[in-house]
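Hey all, sorry for the wall of text incoming. These are the two entities for the joint prediction.
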Amino acid sequence: MQSFLKQGMSEQDINDVVAYVRSFEKQSLKAEYDFHVEPLTLIYDSPYSLEKTIANVKLAAIGKNFRIIREQTLEDGLFEKGKDNKKQVIVYFCNFKLLNQALAVDPRVGLFLPCRVTVVEQAGEVKLYAINPKRLSGLFNNNELNKLCGSMYDTYTDILEESTL
Amino acid sequence: MNFVKRSLPVIVLKSLMFFSLAAQADNMMMARTTQTFPEAMSELQEQIRLKGYVVSRVQRVDIGLTQSGYKTDKYRVVFYGKPDETRKLCQRYPELTAYLPLKISIFAEERDTILVTANPQHLSKAGDRELARAIDQWEKDLVDIFRNMREVN
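and here's what came out:
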């Protein structure tokens, strides 16, 4: 391999790179949680009807300073109007400050934004389903995002708990 | 010895970059195209339809982004799926309702457009062949869609 001095880097540049690489030693590469053992989905049972649970999710999200973006069936746009399953409803909500903060850390994270909770009635039971941000943090390989995902996990579980109390 | 000192940072950096990219390749799928954002948006939806999926919604994620100092206001998430397959899988695996329909993020970066999605393999469950078949097909289709998007320049 040709010396990087010959390729145009100065002594100072090389020293800076070495110092930068050595600084990795001081950084903790471990997240505060192990995303491998986290479940894929956060699942909560609701003692309420589908309609009441949806209303509860909206109230809980608003209570956490989120704005309700929209409510739609999961199959909306996949089937003709009226033929979609009305028992699977997605509530989308967003906090723009949080959204911008997350996108500034890693623009790929927009894939899982805005936030959503899916309320499903199946066989007479109503359940809530949400992504598990702690599990997803493992996809991004970004230490800074891990903290944000930990905080989003707390927000999601708070909303899910409040909706089903 | 001097040679080692000069080359060490480069070897370490290249190794870090290699392992970092390899890890990301497993988890996230990305493509860059030189198409403008509107062209890429249109082409992506066409490519999705050519694979037999229905585009169910295009979600804006960029409201207020530029006001907050973010560098692009061109950011969308494209939702898509096969209607009957989505219905069947959601009934059989309700935990997937948090992740379906499938989606691809698309955003402008300077003159290029970037496509990103999570590799659907992250949804797989050990030992479930029916789900594995669906996920393998989604992954294969995504590889094709992203390759085609890169080639249309």
